[in-house]
Write a structure and sequence with these properties.
The protein has ten helices and 21 strands. With 553 residues, the protein is an alpha/beta fold. The chain folds into two domains: 64-250, no CATH class; 264-372 and 388-446 and 470-537, 4-Layer Sandwich (Purple Acid Phosphatase, chain A, domain 2).
Length: 553
């Protein structure tokens, strides 16, 4: 390469280097200029004002939300209740009415960012006593319920507005320490809260009371607010429905307040007795609610879980695990062997068919109904007590009694389906649970009598006297408790003029496995709105004992 050529390449490289340096300088000046512009924009007064305004809005809304959640409560008198009303922020709005221990009603009453909650769990003693002394006052209380609730909502709205503004003022004062900014935060809270209340009022839907969503025991009594198809589109009808709710629940609480007092001890075992579900899907929700509400240890089912005993009905029993506690079952006359096997496959189910089991210290024996008569066409058995005629019900009761005697240990509860099976168990166990009749009955079985021989001399002695917990020696008295239909007799419950109610009972046993009290719970059948709960203490005068039931037809 010649010298001139080499010099030319060097000159070209030098020009490229100088050009790159110049470009870098220009880029640096652009970046530096952009940075300087950003700094000037950040320091601009409008940017500062927007930031302050955003902070004021955030503090104002945050203070309103916090104050509303903590202090937006009001107490009003509705019938015998001290109703506690509260407002909380919510995206969907709506209203929730809690009626412990029955459950709650959820109403799509309005839109907007606030949710109204009404709790009817507290009784006013003086007002309750007045209702007990004057039953006619219950209807009067219902008549004023609408006005009471409306007044309470207005009071609560005003209270929420004031609390929201005050909370925003206090929070902004802690943050800003500037009177103008504090005032702006208070004004923001006022506008937001007032706008939320206005939106709720503008989107109010009085008709939502006709289509509530139920939780708890009320899920099985949707007629508590009436049949939506029969409610006319006017405010007066909705007022009548609210009056009905208050009247019904008032009767429930005034009844409970006058019942015998029994306070279960910490070591009490609670057993829920259900029977005759008859494929009613609502029964499972009711059972689950009572199990959770009353802290139930086990459920005992005395049969007729389905209607026809077909394989297609086995899917119904798959809800047993959802109960969450041991489920002890005996077969009814509507339950086939297929149904019994399906129940046995459930993880928490125990099928008793001439067997004995122990649950939470209680020893329970049971046997299934020997007859399978889902269509009622099978010939009726001989009259009760006609053992010579081969009454299969009495024979099954005798079989269970022999199993209990052969076990060599005391049994606390015997489970059968048909009350006619209970007679041979008299003096063998202290308590027999049954179903089948679709109505609640409690009776004491007649004491067992020895069978006379052909010569007129007793051939088989009566059962040996047993010692009770208090040392008393004598024949064991046997109590027969027949449950109604927890499923409202299924479709059969609609055949009568008045629907069959849904019933179930909570049994309380002490540490010595003795029955001390029981609660009867009854919900009106389809189209009915009543809910009744009754506490019965063993040995109390208020306990209703009926004569032993005649054989069912």
């Amino acid at each position: 390469m010649t010298a001139p050529t080499w010099l030319r390449h060097l000159s070209t490289a030098r020009r490229h280097v100088l050009g790159a340096a110049a470009w870098g300088g220009r880029a640096y000046r652009h970046v530096h200029g952009a940075t300087a512009w950003t700094g000037r924009a950040y320091r601009h007064r409008w940017t500062h004002r927007i930031g302050v305004a955003a902070a004021i809005a955030l503090i104002g809304i945050g203070g309103a939300v916090i104050g509303t959640m903590l202090f937006a409560h009001a107490t009003i008198a509705v019938g015998p209740f001290r109703a506690e009303m509260s407002i909380t922020p919510s995206i969907q709005g709506g209203t929730e009415v809690d009626i412990p221990p029955l459950g709650s009603l959820h109403l799509d009453s309005h839109d907007g960012p606030i949710h109204l909650k009404v709790n009817l769990g507290s009784l006013d003693q003086s007002r309750t006593e007045a209702l007990i002394d004057d039953p006619a006052a219950i209807s009067s209380a219902g008549e004023h319920a609408v006005e009471d609730v409306r007044t309470g909502v207005v009071r609560l709205g005003i209270r929420a507005l004031g609390i929201a503004v005050l909370s925003a003022l206090l929070l902004s004062a802690l943050v800003f320490r500037n009177i103008r900014r504090v005032a702006a935060a208070g004004l923001t809270a006022l506008v937001v809260t007032l706008g939320s209340l206005g939106l709720a009022a503008a989107t109010l839907r009085p008709g939502s009371i006709a289509e509530p969503r139920y939780e708890g025991l009320l899920v099985n009594a949707p007629a508590v607010v009436g049949d939506a198809r029969r409610i006319a589109d006017n405010y007066g009808k909705y007022a009548d429905q609210l009056q009905q709710i208050v009247s019904n629940v008032s009767r429930l609480y005034t009844t409970v307040s006058s019942l015998p007092v029994y306070e279960p001890a910490g070591n009490t075992t609670r057993i829920l007795h259900v029977s005759d579900l008859h494929l009613n899907p609502a029964s499972w929700g009711l059972i689950r609610t009572v199990v959770q509400t009353f802290d139930i240890d086990a459920v005992v089912d005395t049969g007729d879980m389905v209607d026809w005993g077909s394989a297609a009905e086995t899917n119904y029993v798959t809800s047993i695990p959802s109960v969450g506690v041991p489920y002890i079952y005996v077969r009814g006359n509507h339950d086939s062997g297929i149904i019994q096997s399906a129940v046995a496959r459930q993880k928490n189910a125990i099928v008793l068919d001439n067997k004995i089991t122990t649950i939470d210290g209680l020893t329970i024996a049971g046997i299934g109904d020997p007859q399978f008569t889902p269509d009622k066409t099978t010939a009726e058995p001989p009259p009760n007590g006609d053992e010579q005629g081969g009454n299969p019900l009495v024979a099954a009761g005798n079989q269970l009694a022999q199993t209990i005697r052969a076990s060599g240990k005391p049994v606390d509860i015997a489970m059968v389906h048909d009350p006619a099976m209970a007679t041979p168990l008299s003096g063998v166990v202290p308590l027999v649970l049954a179903g089948h009749l679709h109505k609640r009955e409690v009776s004491l079985l007649s004491a067992p009598t020895p069978e006379p021989s052909a010569s007129g001399v007793s051939a088989s002695p009566a059962p040996a006297p047993l010692a009770s917990a208090d040392g008393f020696q004598g024949p064991m008295p046997t109590r027969l408790m027949v449950e109604g239909s927890t499923g409202g007799a299924g479709l059969r419950g609609l055949e009568k003029e008045k629907p069959t109610p849904l019933t179930l009972s909570v049994l309380y046993f002490d540490e010595k496995h003795q029955l001390k009290a029981y609660d009867d719970i009854q919900l009106g059948g389809t189209g009915e709105s009543n809910v009744e709960m009754q506490r019965n203490v063993i040995g109390a005068d208020a306990e209703k004992i009926t004569p032993t039931s005649a054989p069912p037809s």
